[in-house]
Design a protein that fits this description.
Layout (H helix, E strand, L loop, with lengths): L30 E2 L2 E2 L2 H10 L27 H10 L10 H35 L20 H17 L2 H8 L9 H20 L2 H4 L3 H27 L8 H7 L1
Antiparallel strand pairs: 1-2
Helix pairs in contact: 4-6, 6-8
């Protein structure tokens, strides 16, 4: 039995139509040739619609075979007829050259995005390096040893130094250290002065991406185990920076590192 295929206006699609293939009722992967359809029906239409005029499709029955997810492979003639009936557009099929050109364009754009991502990452690393703390004796000059570090190590240390520079401002400690050494502090003053140091260092830790990626329990454990040691190193650095001429045997210096 011979058939003449004619495209008919597609029916109005509803929200439910978008979830299933209009040809066989299977799960739709999206619009293909203008109609929601599954991947097998999409491939079937692309391969067979271009054969019209050069290949004769025949139905072994009466030309009205049911096309479902289970029976769609039984009759290509009726399946193709239904593809046209639900509104699939033959003109939307790309030629081999058009498909190859589209693949090349997709690959070109993907490569461009990869190159841009790499370029942005390198630019960010350069910015971070420019913001490194220039150490004043207490800490080694980071740039002197940068050639011995991997790119990942360099990025991590840059983040750590930059976070310290942004959060632990020296002027707050200059005010704290300007108090007379022999002044008797009340408990509230002492607690407030100490709290500023600890709060500043906690803000510093929270500014480090690697620290933020840890679970809450791990963060608390690290802070409890290491905060006192960090405060000692921090206080030593601050004392040396703010009062570079201070004798290391001075009671004031000893108070801050003990």
């Amino acid at each position: 039995m011979n058939f003449e295929f004619r495209s008919k206006p597609g029916r109005k699609k509803t929200r439910r139509d978008d979830d299933k293939c209009l040809v066989c009722g299977g799960k739709s992967i999206g619009l293909n040739f203008g109609v929601p359809s599954c991947s097998p029906c999409k491939v079937f239409f692309r391969r067979n619609a271009v054969k019209l005029g050069t290949y004769e499709f025949r139905c072994r029955e009466d030309g009205d075979c049911p096309i479902t997810n289970d029976t769609r492979r039984q009759c290509n003639c009726c399946r193709l007829a239904k593809c046209f009936r639900v509104g699939m557009d033959r003109k939307a099929i790309r030629s081999d050259d058009q498909r190859l050109e589209r693949i090349r364009l997709i690959e070109f754009n993907r490569q461009k995005r990869t190159e841009k991502k790499y370029s942005d990452k390198k630019a960010l690393q350069i910015i971070h390096r420019q913001k490194l703390i220039q150490c004043n004796g207490s800490l080694m000059n980071f740039q002197t040893y940068s050639s011995f570090l991997s790119s990942n190590d360099h990025s991590i240390l840059t983040n750590i130094f930059y976070a310290y520079e942004r959060t632990c401002k020296l002027f707050t400690y200059k005010e704290h250290l300007s108090m007379p050494v022999n002044e008797t502090l009340t408990l509230p003053k002492f607690m407030n002065a100490s709290a500023n140091i600890y709060m500043g260092l906690i803000c510093y830790l929270k500014s480090i991406p690697e620290f933020n990626s840890l679970p809450v329990n791990a963060k608390m454990s690290l802070i409890k185990s290491n905060l006192n040691q960090i405060v000692r190193v921090h206080s030593t650095y601050i004392m040396k920076t703010v009062t570079p001429d201070l004798d290391k045997d001075s009671p004031v210096f000893f108070t801050y590192i003990s």
